[in-house]
Amino acid sequence: IITRALGLDRDINVDTDTFDLINGDYILLCTDGLTNAVEDWEIAVMIGESSNPAEAVEKMIAKANGRGGMDNVTVQLLYKND
User: Fold this and answer.
1) Is 42 exposed, middle or buried (0-12, 13-18, 19+ CB in 10 A)?
2) pLDDT at 13
3) pLDDT for 21-66, tens place per residue?
4) Burial of 57 from C-beta contacts in 10 A (0-12 / 13-18 / 19+)
5) From CA 27, how far away is CA 76, in angstroms rounded?
6) 67-81: per-residue pLDDT in tens?
7) Phi/psi at 77 (nearest 5 deg)?
8) Residue 73, class by beta-carbon neighbours within 10 Å (0-12 exposed, 13-18 middle, 19+ buried)?
C-alpha cells in the first residue's frame, strides 16, 4: 500500500522498490475513491472473474461509482503475462 501524497512542493520524496513478478501476478494502483467504496475481497473477485485487466478495471470503477462515487476513482491494473 502506497500512502504518500505527492503534494504541491517543487521537490518531492519518491519511494521506490524492486520486486520480482511471476506470470499471473497483478499490481493494482488506485485512489482511495476505489478502496473507500469497494472492499478488498470484492476487488479480488472482480479481478478473478474478469477475462482481462481492462474488464476488471471497468467493473471496479462501475462498482465504486454505483456506491455513490464520493471521491474520484482512478484505477490502473497491471498484469504479468510473458
Assistant:
1) middle
2) 75
3) 999 999 999 999 999 999 999 999 999 999 999 999 999 999 999 9
4) buried
5) 8
6) 988 889 999 999 999
7) -120, 120
8) buried
All three cell numbers of 68: 455513490
Q: Are 33 and 69 in contact (CB under 8 A)?
A: yes
* Residue 26 main-chain phi, psi, to 5 deg: -120, 150
Rounded to two decimals, the pTM is 0.81
Q: Is 42 helix (H, G, I), strand (E, B) or coil?
A: helix
- The number of C-alpha atoms within 13 Å of 74 and in the hemisphere containing its C-beta is 4
How high is the pLDDT of residue 3? 62
Beta bridge partners of 28: 77
- Amino acid at residue number 34: L
